[in-house]
Amino acid sequence: MSTVQDANTTVVSGFHPLDVALRMTPQHDGSMQATAPAAYWNMVGPYGGITAAQMLQAVLAQPNLLGEPVSITVNFAGPVASGDMRIEAVAVRTNRSTQHWTVSMGQRNAEGEYEICTTATVITAVRRETFSMDSLDPPAMPDPATCERYDTQGAMEWLHRYDMRVVQGAIPTVWDDSGQESISQLWVRDDPPRPLDFPALAALCDVFFPRIWLQRARRVPAGTVGMTVYFHAGSEQLAQQADRHVLAQASAQAFRNGYFDQTAQLWDAEGSLLATSHQIVYYKE
Amino acid sequence: MSTVQDANTTVVSGFHPLDVALRMTPQHDGSMQATAPAAYWNMVGPYGGITAAQMLQAVLAQPNLLGEPVSITVNFAGPVASGDMRIEAVAVRTNRSTQHWTVSMGQRNAEGEYEICTTATVITAVRRETFSMDSLDPPAMPDPATCERYDTQGAMEWLHRYDMRVVQGAIPTVWDDSGQESISQLWVRDDPPRPLDFPALAALCDVFFPRIWLQRARRVPAGTVGMTVYFHAGSEQLAQQADRHVLAQASAQAFRNGYFDQTAQLWDAEGSLLATSHQIVYYKE
């Protein structure tokens, strides 16, 4: 879905930057050619969430796709460089109502060798309506319109692609090793606003800054190495959510010898879970 | 590690059933040949936890392995039949301190075609000692010696391989749709007792019965389709834990149109996290 915007936004060529990132050209060998999106640049490569969105899109674009995504696990194996990338999505097993995919993203390195920089597995399924309930209530949050927007002035490029309104657990402003609980709660949506779809939701699951920064009030190098998203929403719930703010919550369970985990929940504007997500994150201290 | 047992236990040929399951023969093409373990049989194939352990073992057995496991994601793509299986583990990317693996398990079907039944990705890493803390306290639990052991009489074969002592959230004895909170807390270890290692820990992460049974007090068909384990423990912590009971906790966050998620924590006997784990589970209602 593409959203034409005014010329004074950051939108490239009249298309939403997320849609630009998701543009892929099918190749003769069945793979997809895509581009590392400059609009989502992080410190040493694209924002991990946008890489996850691209890996998912490479599956969603396949003609033999069965159903909708239920799960994606993305492993960030190495840095993604600017320029072209090749994404290969293979349906390794198709059952009656589920389909299992393996996905790899690769680029040629400086020596001209093809290197895998990202791997993923995706499960898609045809779901039918049945007993459903959330076991986890969303935290009480003020209306997003009344919450101050996180100031991204001078921040990395990808942060400008999101409208974040942090209610609890904002990024520390003083790095004094004081530390606090590792939980963050915020409202977030694409900027410019864009109707939510599966790739956008996968990308949103990675918006949290490293939990170690909050727990320690110390800014140490950190980066996600693996991330899983379980999609509870189907396309109908995504359509109802449209471009409203998503309630996002994340916390860590353990920090141990260079790796911490993160568990996250994303609710729609009505308080129904859209996705739950998990990460294993490298930190250097 | 193998544990020789008395002849009157269930141990096959003097070896622990888990060690029997983890026996693999390297093939000329770099893959491993293993066997679907009868000692861990579930309703329509091996217990998912043992399949996860085998996928991990296929990585740990590689001569070019770097470090210890940090993460494994296993997707159960199709049923595993009895007999031989082929497990292929490929190091798709090796960095200075991390290594990324893709793993597939396959078997020949009745028509003689080779079919993938399980996929996995594994991240291994060389970890160094640094700031560590758990953000999640273990629940208060009585000593395992004082807890009643779950009676596995007449149960499926794999359940006899575990000594489970459920303190909270046992499998319902009356299926009356009454329902309750989806949380379970139990002590669990291999039976016969066996020193904990990474494959054993991966297997333990799948011991919980389907959360939908607890939430609904209704026994509906259910099966794990994807499972992730984040290993917080290194080999030193595993050695300290040895063969003592592990504290295991699991709950669901959402049940939605045929799939629910499960988030789980496993602590050692000293109350330090060994692993956190997540599943996406199919249910039919």
Keywords summarizing the entry:
Acyl-CoA thioesterase (chains A, B); 12-stranded antiparallel beta sheet; Porin; 285 residues; 15 strands; 13% helix; homodimer; disordered N terminus; two-stranded antiparallel sheet; mainly beta
Show the helix and strand layout.
Two copies of one chain form a homodimer.
Chain A: H1 17-21, E1 25-26, E2 32-36, E3 41-42, E4 45-46, H2 48-60, E5 68-76, E6 83-94, E7 98-108, E8 114-125, E9 133-134, E10 162-168, E11 184-190, H3 198-204, H4 211-216, E12 222-231, H5 235-241, E13 246-256, E14 259-267, E15 273-283
Antiparallel strand pairs in A: 1-2, 2-6, 3-4, 5-8, 5-12, 6-7, 7-8, 10-11, 11-13, 12-15, 13-14, 14-15
Write a structural description.
The structure is a homodimer of 285-residue chains. Chain A has 285 residues and is mainly beta. Chain A folds into two domains: 17-125, Porin (Beta Barrel); 148-283, Acyl-CoA thioesterase, double hotdog domain (Porin), CATH 2.40.160. Chain A has helices spanning 17-21, 48-60, 198-204, 211-216, 235-241, and strands at 25-26, 32-36, 41-42, 45-46, 68-76, 83-94, 98-108, 114-125, 133-134, 162-168, 184-190, 222-231, 246-256, 259-267, 273-283. Chain A has a twelve-stranded antiparallel sheet with strand order 1-2-6-7-8-5-12-15-14-13-11-10. In chain A, strands 3-4 form a two-stranded antiparallel ribbon. In chain A, helix 2 runs antiparallel to helix 3 (198-204). The relative contact order of chain A is 0.15. The model of chain A is unreliable at 1-10 (pLDDT under 50). At the A-B interface, strand 5, strand 7, strand 8, strand 9 and strand 12 of A face strand 5, strand 7, strand 8, strand 9 and strand 12 of B. Strand 9 (133-134) of chain A pairs antiparallel with strand 14 (254-256) of chain B. Chains A, B: Residues 39-123 form the Acyl-CoA thioesterase-like N-terminal HotDog domain.
